[in-house]
Amino acid sequence: xxxxxxxxxxxxxxxxxxxxxxxxxxxxxxxxxxxxxxxxxxxxxxxxxxxxxxxxxxxxxxxxxxxxxxxxxxxxxxxxxxxxxxxxxxxxxxxxxxxxxxxxxxxxxxxxxxxxxxxxxxxxxxxxxxxxxxxxxxxxxxxxxxxxxxxxxxxxxxxxxxxxxxxxxxxxxxxxxxxxxxxxxxxxxxxxxxxxxxxxxxxxxxxxxxxxxxxxxxxxxxxxxxxxxxxxxxxxxxxxxxxxxxxxxxxxxxxxxxxxxxxxxxxxxxxxxxxxxxxxxxxxxxxxxxxxxxxxxxxxxxxxxxxxxxxxxxxxxxxxxxxxxxxxxxxxxxxxxxxxxxxxxxxxxxxxxxxxxxxxxxx
Amino acid sequence: xxxxxxxxxxxxxxxxxxxxxxxxxxxxxxxxxxxxxxxxxxxxxxxxxxxxxxxxxxxxxxxxxxxxxxxxxxxxxxxxxxxxxxxxxxxxxxxxxxxxxxxxxxxxxxxxxxxxxxxxxxxxxxxxxxxxxxxxxxxxxxxxxxxxxxxxxxxxxxxxxxxxxxxxxxxxxxxxxxxxxxxxxxxxxxxxxxxxxxxxxxxxxxxxxxxxxxxxxxxxxxxxxxxxxxxxxxxxxxxxxxxxxxxxxxxxxxxxxxxxxxxxxxxxxxxxxxxxxxxxxxxxxxxxxxxxxxxxxxxxxxxxxxxxxxxxxxxxxxxxxxxxxxxxxxxxxxxxxxxxxxxxxxxxxxxxxxxxxxxxxxxxxxxxxxxxxxxxxxxxxxxxxxxxxxxxxxxxxxxxxxxxxxxxxxxxxxxxxxxxxxxxxxxxxxxxxxxxxxxxxxxxxxxxxxxxxxxxxxxxxxxxxxxxxxxxxxxxxxxxxxxxxxxxxxxxxxxxxxxxxxxxxxxxxxxxxxx
Lengths: 363, 515
Description:
heterodimer; A: mainly alpha; two-stranded antiparallel sheet; 66% helix; disordered N terminus; B: alpha/beta; six-stranded mixed sheet; 17 helices
């Protein structure tokens, strides 16, 4: 609270009420560092786990294993990137589990019908975006229905449609494009890893370097304030569900590539795991704060844990137990640091008053 | 730094229903309370607690109601030292808080809310609803209220909800009622009713700690004052020892502070200034009936009226937030029928909503982003926001509004209430809107910020903007406006020039008493 040194002639209390000059913002780096605040705990966890497994399991640090680690979480990664945007707006998309399988089937069918590989993949992603935007997006963004009810409903519908359409059979895919995306290398790196990097970079760009990204935060921070400022809030919400749809589609495409077939098995934990990764990464379930950087770490946490445990020969279901506990602990830690359960430090009775220096006569 | 701890008074006598001594509380680096003290001297006393935003009032109230624990200090009830580990604990000692944000369950009935947190009247087969309702009615009758206890709280007006909260406190046999800014959302009639209620309670020996930013009304009600500044008690004593100036001086800590608004008589906008906005026969079924208002460029027109008279609804209708049943709106001489905020914004209309934290600003985003939200709402959504494109706008608005924030990249949530409100206002200044609709522009901001915002609005008008200001404080309208339009039950009942308007005249029109 230093008011600076007053010069001798400047005696009177300066009537300093005028406009404070616009203070220079903190430097780029310090604000970038401040932005990491929400995911610092998970960053620490990932590092600790990583170091632990690296020291205790000799296989862990091999290039091959790290590749396996990453490709193992590639589907979750891609889906979680999309989920991040939805959660920032204050929603969750439960339907991605079924939508990704639906798109996998769609891809198998159109490839079977002779659509060229590249076009088929693009079409599949487009279908994912359209289905997500036109069902979840319109119902939540325009009709103002609850995201929970809508995406639970579409999850159920898509699951049913998938089973009806596939008649519980799997469709084997021979088109090379799918294997190329799911298992082969590109430029010496497994393609899923490249897809992960690309989706992350696109997500980061959209989040930080576009007005759309700002809209997403504004809508999540306060929908009424955003709407009253002239932001097209319905369109923003439709868009984020289209984005999760597209990401689910991409996840579905990688999945078909990894199996070499489109199977009508809907894994309901995909959406929940994605949401868990996003929340682990420090994105707020209430919207308005967070980002894909944290999500990447959240997914890595799950990946490192899964991989390390399986190398150590421990049942991989422990990964779920630990992830769940950590997720709750992270949120709880947040709550505690907010001061609800602060340690109390107070003396009984009026001792502090007595301990105070003898009261000077009031001026 | 040089804040010497004030002399700590002796523990109070047994006559004081509630007293605190030497309260100290830190949040991390923030020293929220510095050995503050306060004594409600006798049962039935109305004790006014004032201080600017950030003076430690909320912390003190939090401690009194048991929601927060002090680091040091002692609470006395009837002269005996006590400790409040939780709100329930405080309630048990007869201290009940009626907070700014009403803590009621909107989907439960009035009776259920009054008995919330306790058991309702039981019968052998479960809850005895008839007796529960009867008891609720009895409590409500103590406040001279005839609400149907079966009515859902969510359907009540804010002032009615507040009364239900008071009723709940009474039903808990509260002996000290803490009212945190109870009047900030009430009309003058409702305030009068509330004061009647408090005086009634006083006769019953129920004390009240009354927090408000409206000093004038406090003089009509309170028996004694405590003034907080920077977390310390800087003045306390019976009401006779204070006047408005000395209170403000104590709060601000600087007698030269220009927080005392000088009622500047602005040069009236000349009679031939062009009409900026003209509303004719505006009807919203069930809410507005044929409302007509004209606002000229450079003019500040006030909207007076009770809560529910249609003031807010009129502003919302002009901004495209309500479906119009008829009538016309002209802005800049061209008619338009807004179907949403974007239509209105496109015509140069801006709107300051009454609920700053939810509707006015996005708390979790930066000052700069909030300020440029309107200007950039039509920029290509895939374009990159660049600070340098908007820096000039942000700096200009900073300058005009004198926003005090650490930097433009500080989150709005870190700002004081008054500065948040300036940000909410600033986005319309940034967008250079010609017509501003303002709903309760100074609700919940401290005296200093209020005067400052008034000054900003006057200067905006001087620059040729047309302002339509709705306020539940007639005092504020009289001070600010060139003309005041009074609404009653969805219709305009009077349009008065500043000279002919006085509080009694406004109150009489607002109450539907046409002389």
